[in-house]
């Protein structure tokens, strides 16, 4: 009975809580990327109207390049520039992340909206803790509004030819 390899029932419960406390502290949540980076970048795709934006982000000093140009050289309207910076302002990551965007199709407003959605999705994959702030602000919802098609027998989507009684 004095064998050191055998444990008595009285000593086993005393050791079990200590082991679970160590396991609980070892598995404490640490902020980690939601998805593993591909070649050092986190990706996000955004669409708006006819525009598609492919966004890559990585930790850095705040560079924001669109099709190889700086933001202020690509967009001229202040509302489009503010639209793109909005997800970074909400999550307080402006100046901490480098963003590289390839965008095409549509006009400037559609491209700005596509970039906003792409940056938001990339931030969500970069850090899943930012998702609630982005979702509450509506940045993770795709704007489904599209141009209504022109109908036959009419000059436009809704416009009718002038009616003549005589």
> Architecture of the domain at 50-136 in CATH?
2-Layer Sandwich
Largest sheet: 5 strands, mixed
CATH topology of the domain at 50-136: Ribosomal Protein S5, domain 2
Strand content: 15-25%
Count up the helices: 5
Total count of strands = 5
Widest sheet: strand order?
1-2-5-3-4
* CATH classification class of the domain at 50-136: Alpha Beta
Task: Give the CA-based shape.
Answer: elongated
Distance between the termini: 117 Å
Which bin fits the share of residues in helices? 25-40%
Structural class: alpha+beta
Topology readout:
Blueprint lengths: L10 H16 L15 E7 L2 E9 L4 E3 L2 E2 H4 L3 H14 L5 E8 L3 H19 L4 H6 L30
Parallel strand pairs: 3-5
Antiparallel strand pairs: 1-2, 2-5, 3-4
Helix pairs in contact: 3-4
């Amino acid at each position: 009975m004095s064998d050191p390899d055998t444990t008595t029932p009285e000593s086993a419960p005393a050791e079990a809580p200590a082991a679970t406390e160590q396991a609980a502290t070892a598995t404490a949540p640490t902020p980690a990327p939601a998805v593993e980076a591909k070649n050092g970048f986190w990706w996000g795709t955004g669409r708006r109207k006819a525009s598609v934006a492919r966004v890559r982000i990585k930790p850095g000093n705040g560079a924001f390049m669109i099709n190889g140009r700086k933001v202020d050289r690509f967009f001229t309207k202040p509302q489009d520039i503010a639209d793109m910076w909005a997800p970074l302002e909400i999550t307080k990551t402006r100046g901490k992340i480098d963003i590289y965007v390839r965008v095409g199709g549509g006009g400037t407003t559609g491209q700005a909206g596509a970039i906003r959605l792409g940056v938001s999705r990339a931030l969500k994959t970069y850090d899943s803790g930012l998702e609630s702030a982005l979702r509450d602000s509506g940045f993770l919802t795709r704007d489904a509004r599209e141009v209504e098609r022109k109908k036959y027998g009419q000059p436009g989507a809704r416009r009718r030819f002038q009616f003549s009684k005589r």
